[in-house]
Design goal:
The chain has 472 residues and is α/β, with parallel strands linked by helices. The protein is 42% helix and 19% strand. It is built from 16 helices and 14 strands. It binds 1,4-dihydronicotinamide adenine dinucleotide and ligand L46V6VHR. The site of ligand L46V6VHR has 5 residues, from helix 7.
Length: 472
């Protein structure tokens, strides 16, 4: 049965949670007294639809239903997960959590998005909530810090929607990540307030340098490398004494007053005010998709989380011909002509070939055993336009699988069935030791023969054997 998430408070974070659950197949019910909440949440969900599925090379589950309610008790009825995301005020959280506790089913997990409160503070008035602290945008960033009782069971559910639960073993104000962020934030406010740097210069200092490192190796692994061949021990010996130097104003905070707010907000407007928040969100999301997809290749950081989640998603079902690709066209695949760039059709064909290889047993283990296929020739026909956000499906015909050859004809269609391209490709079976062609192992040869039998009698696809400049 489809699971249900109830989102209490649908602002920046509640909207992100709603999108994360919804796009992973959950039904989502929302309670937020703001009359603008429905519009805002729908805008956040639209942004999520254009980005989250683009992280995956398999389709996400079909979206659940989305409903907006005027009554908290009605919202949480039958919920499997209730996520409180109201403003960061303890008295308000206590009131809202008490109402949730009174109406939610006993089996429901009650998570609080609190950035700073400890579970002992949240539960002081009897609530059974635990901290489930996410990161913005919740639908793309996998990290969620879990603190409190029931964290292990909650973690399992969150992994199921593609998140990375980090169980915080001992409660502490602001958990783990916000303590780190707060240190950078505090020092940045000092630098602006003292006139050392502008908001833009600080952002450049982060994104041109260490920000790039952190997404893939974090702090400690990065510094281990910075110690040279002697590693972390040498790094610490070299830079440890700096802790006592006046590099930072640790624990000291600039006075938070109107002048500071005006200074920071004014510089931020000058830096980024030419774009709306939604435009900035889309830019951020497109960049995050590109970064996370790059990390997927090496299984690093958030890319490893997407990889693991993806293997748990069902493969597309075949409908006569094997479906070798079913994914969304990411924004980054569109070019200056406003459609999918020509190179991406070949990339999609190459992904389909890889999937077909896995289907016939020429998978990672087979390659590790020293055998594989090399592509000898490919021909792409561009038949119609695919656009960013389109669903892209590939069905693969096996035209010849005998001997050392594998001749494939990929037909790429969009979700509405329009054939946008064909990629015809000939591969040769090779011994990776000698780099010379050889016959496939019997299991692979037999799998190819089974596909050939299943496809026997199908008409030759239109366009087979075409070459560039052919006279019509
Ligand atoms: N904004 C951020 O970067 C992050 C925020 N958080 C945490 O998430 C929580 C929510 O923060 P944001 O989404 O940023 O705030 P927000 O101000 O964007 O959204 C809060 C929402 O709660 C609604 N609300 C107010 N009273 C309510 C009530 N009694 N019942 C139901 N809804 C009510 C408001 O109408 C608003 O839509 C806070 O605890 C915050 O610390 C966690 C991670 C990141
Ligand atoms: C600013 N903040 C403390 C609310 C930030 C967070 O809690 C996490 C995030 O997304 O940066």
């Amino acid at each position: 049965m489809t699971k249900k998430a109830a989102i209490i408070g649908g602002g920046v974070i509640g909207g992100g949670w709603a999108a994360r659950f919804l796009l992973n197949g959950w039904n989502v019910a929302i309670f937020d007294p703001d009359p603008e909440a429905e519009r805002k949440i729908n805008e956040v969900i639209s942004n999520a639809r254009r980005s989250l599925p683009s992280l995956y090379d398999r389709p996400l589950p079909a979206e659940g239903t989305l409903s907006f309610h005027r009554d908290l008790a009605e919202t949480v009825a039958d919920a499997d997960w209730v996520q409180e995301s109201v403003p960061e005020r303890l008295d308000l959280k206590h009131r809202v959590l008490a109402a949730i506790d009174a109406a939610a089913p006993a089996h429901a997990v009650i998570g609080s998005s609190t950035s700073g409160f400890k579970p002992s503070e949240l539960t002081a008035e009897g609530s059974r909530a635990l901290v489930a602290h996410p990161f913005n945008p919740v639908y793309l960033l996998p990290l969620v810090e879990l603190v409190g009782e029931g964290a292990d069971a909650a973690a399992e559910t969150l992994r199921g929607i593609g998140m990375y639960p980090l169980i915080v073993r001992k409660e502490i104000d602001a958990h783990i990540a916000d303590r780190l962020l707060e240190a950078v934030w505090r020092e940045s406010l000092w630098l602006v307030s003292d006139g050392i740097a502008t908001t833009e210069e600080i952002d450049q200092a982060i994104r041109m340098g260490f920000g790039l490192r952190w997404a893939q190796m974090g702090l400690f692994e990065t510094y281990r490398i910075a110690g040279g061949e002697a590693g972390m021990r040498h790094f610490m010996q070299q830079f440890g004494p700096a802790l006592a130097w006046p590099w930072t104003k640790l624990m000291d905070v600039p006075e938070f007053n109107e002048a500071l707010v005006d200074q920071i907000a004014g510089q931020s407007d000058a830096q980024s005010g030419h774009r709306t928040i939604r435009e900035l969100e889309r830019l951020r999301d497109d960049n995050l998709v590109g970064i996370i997809r790059a990390l997927k290749h090496s299984g690093s950081g958030a890319g490893g989380v997407v990889q693991a989640h993806e293997t748990a998603l069902p493969l597309p079902e075949t409908d006569g011909l094997p479906i070798t690709l079913d994914r969304q066209v990411p924004q980054g695949w569109a070019d200056y002509n406003g459609h999918m760039n020509e190179a991406r059709y070949l990339e999609a064909g190459a992904e389909a070939t890889d999937q077909f290889m896995r289907m016939i047993g020429a998978d990672a283990d087979y390659i590790a055993s020293g055998k594989s296929y090399f592509t000898a020739e490919s021909h792409v026909r561009y038949l119609a336009e695919a656009h960013a956000g389109d669903r892209l499906i590939c069905r693969t015909r096996l035209l010849d699988g005998a001997g050392k050859r594998m001749h494939l004809f990929h037909s790429l269609t969009t979700g509405d069935g329009t054939e946008v391209a064909t990629v015809e490709t000939i591969l040769l079976h090779v011994d990776l030791g000698t780099r010379k062609t050889c016959l496939a192992e019997p299991a692979v040869a037999e799998a190819l023969a089974r596909h050939a039998t299943a496809q026997a009698g199908l008409p030759q696809p239109e366009g087979v054997g075409r070459f560039v400049g052919q006279v019509r």
